[in-house]
Every structure is written in C-alpha cells, then in structure tokens.
Design goal:
Layout (H helix, E strand, L loop, with lengths): L7 H30 L39 H6 L1 E5 L1 H8 L8 E3 L7 H4 L1 E5 L6 E2 L4 H4 L3 E5 L9 H18 L4 E5 L17 H18 L3 E2 L1 H6 L21 H12 L17 E2 L11 H14 L3 E2 L8 E9 L8 H15 L5 E8 L5 E9 L10 E4 L7 E6 L6 E6 L8 E7 L7 E7 L5 E6 L5 E5 L10 E2 L2 E4 L5 E3 L3 E2 L6 E7 L7 E7 L5 E6 L35
Parallel strand pairs: 1-2, 1-5, 5-6, 6-7, 9-11
Antiparallel strand pairs: 3-4, 3-8, 10-12, 11-12, 13-14, 14-15, 16-17, 17-18, 19-21, 20-23, 21-22, 24-25, 25-26
Length: about 575
C-alpha cells in the first residue's frame, strides 16, 4: 500500500503516533542530561588573564565536618570567599573597612543582632533606589553559601530567645532562597578588659551562647564554624588574644580579621552548586564618601592637658591596677579639626561633672565603626588593701616543669600570680601492654612518662565473663529448690556453685472465721502466707450461763408479849 492509499484518518493517526514517539525520546534525553549534570565537574569562573597564576576553583567534595563543627581542610581559595555572602554585625563590616573583604559580598552593620536580619531594611543594592532587608536581597545576590555571625549584640538578652530567633531567621532564609548552604559562625571572643560598661558582655556569656549555637546546629544539621575556641582565643587565659583585638575588647583588628578569614578558607564547606543563576549584584551598606573627621590624637592631648590643669591625675600608662569606673563621651563623625577646641571643652566639662575631683584618670578613644568617635574615660581607684579570693591553678605543675596559679582581688580585680613547684609524681604516662590479662591470671602494662621518661608498671585485671548455665529453682513450702549455677564462659571457672535449698515449710497465721455460740461451735482458720494453704479447727461451744439462785425468804419477826397489867392494891398503886 502506498502513501496515497492511506485514508485521511489513517494518515492523522500515523502522524500523531510519530509525534508521541519523538516527544518521548526528547524528554528522556533531557532528563538524563539534567540528572548527570550534578555529577560533572563545575568549570572555573572565567577570569581575565593578567599574566599571574590564578587560584584554582574549589571542586565539589564531601564536606569535612563532625556533624557540628567544621574540620580543617586544604585552603579553599579566593573563589570560595567570593561565593560566600557574609551577614553579620560590625566585625564583618570592619572586614570591609580594614580591606580584608569588599562591599561586594558583605552585609554588616554596627549593633546588628539576629532579629534585624528579617526586619531591618539596611542593604543598599545597586539596582534599587530604596534599601531592602538582608533576606529580600538574596535572590538578587545569589550567594553559593551564607556565613552568619551574630551574638555579640544579643548577649544582653536571654540565650533561649536568641536561639529561637536564630532558628526562625534560618528558616526564613531557606524559604526565601533555598540554593545556598548556611554556615553559623561562633560569637567572637572578647578581651579580658572589655570596655562596655554593661557588665554582661563577658566571655562567660559568649561561651554560653556558643554552646547553645552548637546544640542548634546539631539539631538543624547545619555546620558550625568555631573561630572563637580555635582561632581567636588565648588557650591559657580563655579570653581573646590581646594582639588581635581593638582597645574596646569587642572589635577585632585587621590582623585578627585576616586570621578569621584564613580560618574560614581552611575549614571549608563545599557542596554541589545548586544556584540557578550565578551572577550576583553589587551593593553597599554605607555611603562610600567619608566625611572629614577630627584628629582624635590631638583632641585627646588637649583634653588631657586641660584635665591635668584642673587637678586630675592623668595616667598615660597601660597599668590600671585598682577599681575602675567607666564613663563615655561620643563625638559625631561629622566633627572636624575646626571643632576640636569646642569638643575638648565639652569632654572636660563632662568629665568634671561625673568623675571624682583629683581622681586618677586614663582616657582612650576609638571609632565605633559607625563613623563616630567614642572616648572612654576610666576613673581608677587603687586598692589600699587587696581582698584576694581563692587560688586558681592556671597551669598545672608536671614532673619536669613548674606550674602557676593566680588569685584575684574582689575589690579591684588585681591578679596575683605565683609559681607551683615541680611535682615529681605528676607524670604523664603513655601505656603499652606487656602481658595480656586473662580470667585466670592478671596481665601487665608498662607506662613511660612522655615528659621525663620515667617508667612504671601496673597490673591489668580482666574480669570473668559470667554465663548462667542453670537457672535458680526457688524452694516452696513443701518442696526443696536449688540456687543458680554461673560459670565463666572464657575459662570455665565456677563463679556460683549450684546448691540445694531445703523446703521452706508453711508459715501459718490464724484468724477466727466463725465465732462460737451456746448452740454452735466456732471455726479458727490457718492460712500460709507463702503458698495460701489453709486448714481449720473448731472452737468449742460456749458454756450455758448458770441459773441464778433464788433469794431466801426472810423469817417473820416474833410478836412481842404484852406487859402484865398491875393488880390493884399493889405497891405501885399506893
């Protein structure tokens, strides 16, 4: 049959069948291509050839982490940083100010807390006339991963509220933009002398918040970047390392921010790039134009001279032994050198009104990273007599090195330290087995001190592995029983020998179950407290009550005889 011999209906059916087969084939090819695309290596982002070797694009690999904290990896490179959106407070903004990062991928603001991520419109995108929230900006910025750094500005609140808000923020990010990996950074460490005046911004609070963040990350299965314990802290003091901290004790200097960023690069979390679009927007947080600022060094010198002339003792050194009270004065970022004399007069008046006349003062200044200049006035009252607390061991003595301990004055915070003598017995042993222990005979371990080489030995005791070979048969009132038999399953030693147990015999208790009467006998029942066996015995009838004896009839009293009447003429009648 030729094509011309098909009817119009047949030709339509043939055409439709061919179209369905073709569509099915195309759909299958598209599906298989998409399924395998995720397994292909992501090509590096093209960069201009400037004659210098470019850093290699990080390849997808299994993230190195223990379920909570990210572990050390090879340096993930500049591209890993460029694909990250850093959202946090002033320390992230300082990364921009210190040249560690650029405004291209940092959302940072002084005083920013976790609750502001969803509500505050403080992100200025290049394409938008008005600012937007950090979450609203994600679809424009298209980050591959997001590093969150919050907590310093939340320490004055409750830790449970902080975690609850953090969880809600993460959920909001995931709902708005599901293509990025979220990494939670620890609350940064603080210096021992933190000039905040609040008293609650302490390392104890930082540690408490970080433990709660770890638990949250474990629950949400989100990686935790522990920069505080592993990068910023001094392991001997438990506080932030002084050489990386700004003088206020909260903000991190450029060298510390560089270390923090390097730690992030060498504790990488790289998964499949799920972004549908990889070209992000550029944006700024603050206006790039910097206003003229006052010369704070000159201003501080003028203030110090005026206060010294007013009778205050100006302490220019770093030693602050004594009780310290803090006072703060803020100079606006728009103040210029022409305003210096006026600002100096205002600060001197402020100090004179708040500090004790003739007090020992030390004044320092620093930017609050918001453009303002904050002068911290410390009034120092030396102790006349310290009140030390208990000694605390800061470094334990060993068999080859001295230790140290300290105690702190409760009045002024002065620390007194002293050495602890070498402890010849404080060895640190590395143990190895010399003779394996068995059930029948103890073994032996040899310990070698890793510090001084001293060698000692100790006995290894291996416990038997009991196996019940015969179960206990409890004795009853009428039949004897047996104890259980326990034998070591390794060496065969009998640990519990099987013994016979005699019958227990009944343990009866009696009670009257029927009271006797004169007409019927009573019943006393005996019941065994162990098995419930019973038997009864009769109680005799009660004896009839005796008849009462009749009372005796009283005898009649005798009638008295009448006295004789005297005869006439008797002597009595004369």
């Amino acid at each position: 049959m030729t094509g011309s011999e098909y009817s119009p209906l047949q030709r339509a059916v043939i055409f439709l069948s061919f179209f369905i087969i073709l569509a099915s084939a195309v759909t299958t090819i598209v599906y298989l291509t998409g399924k395998n695309r995720g397994k292909e290596e992501i090509p590096p982002v093209p960069v201009p050839d400037d004659g210098q070797q470019q850093e290699q694009q990080p390849q997808e690999e299994d993230p190195v982490w223990d379920g909570v904290s990210l572990q050390e990896t090879e340096d993930a490179g500049e591209e890993y940083v460029n694909e990250t959106l850093f959202i946090g407070d002033s320390n992230f903004l300082r990364m921009v100010g210190q040249g560690v990062l650029t405004h291209r991928n940092v959302i940072g603001k002084p005083g920013k807390g976790i609750s502001s991520v969803r509500g505050d419109r403080d992100v200025y995108l290049a394409e938008y006339a008005e600012p937007v929230t950090a979450i609203s900006s994600l679809k424009v910025l298209c980050p591959r991963r997001i590093l969150l750094n919050f907590g310093t500005n939340d320490l004055l609140g409750r830790v449970d509220y902080f975690i609850s808000t953090y969880k809600n923020t993460i959920t909001a990010i995931q709902n708005a933009y599901s293509y990025a990996d979220i990494i939670v950074m620890s609350v940064p460490a603080m210096s021992r002398d933190t000039d905040t005046g609040y008293g609650m911004l302490t390392m104890k609070a930082v540690d408490e918040f970080n433990e709660a963040l770890k638990d949250m990350c474990r629950e949400l299965e989100i990686p935790f970047l522990n920069v505080t314990d592993e990068c910023l802290k001094d392991p001997e003091t438990g506080y932030a390392r002084s050489e990386i901290m700004y003088q206020d004790g909260i903000h991190i200097e450029a060298n510390g921010l560089t270390e923090l960023l390097n730690y992030y690069r060498t504790h990488a979390y790289i998964t499949e790039d799920r972004r549908p679009v990889k070209q992000g927007s550029t944006y700024v947080i603050w206006s790039p134009a910097e206003p003229d600022t006052i010369d704070c060094s000159a201003l501080l010198s003028e203030v110090s001279s005026r206060l010294a002339a007013s009778g205050f003792d100006m302490n220019s050194g770093s030693s602050e032994e004594g009780a310290v009270r803090y006072f703060y004065y803020t100079v606006g970022s728009d103040a210029t050198d022409d305003d210096r004399s006026t600002c100096a007069g205002e600060i001197v008046s402020y100090v004179s009104a708040n500090c004790t006349a003739g007090a020992k003062l030390r004044i320092v200044w620093g930017d609050d990273v918001n453009g303002n200049h904050v002068f911290t006035i410390k009034e120092i009252t030396p102790c006349t007599e310290h009140e030390y607390g208990e000694w605390t061991v800061t470094s334990a003595a060993t068999c080859s090195a001295k230790g140290s301990r300290k105690r702190v004055c409760a009045k002024c915070g002065h620390e007194e330290t002293e050495e602890i003598d070498i402890d010849p017995q404080a060895h640190s042993y590395s143990w190895e087995t010399v003779t394996e222990a068995t059930c029948a005979a103890p073994g032996e371990e040899k310990g070698t001190c890793t510090a001084c080489g001293y060698v000692t030995t100790r006995e290894i005791i291996k416990e038997h592995e009991p196996n019940v070979t015969q179960q206990e048969v409890p004795a009853t009132c009428t039949q004897g029983g047996n104890t259980r038999e326990v034998i070591c399953s390794v060496c065969g030693e009998v640990l519990e020998e099987r013994k016979e147990v005699a019958a227990l015999g009944h343990d009866y208790a009696s009670s009257v179950t029927k009271e006797p009467t004169e007409e019927e006998e009573g019943v006393r029942t005996y019941t065994c407290s162990r098995c419930g066996d019973t038997y009864s015995e009769s109680i005799p009838k009660l004896e009839p009550a005796p008849e009462p004896e009749p009372e005796p009839t009283p005898e009649p009293e005798p009638t008295p005889e009448p006295e004789p009447t005297p005869e006439p003429g008797s002597e009595d009648g004369q």
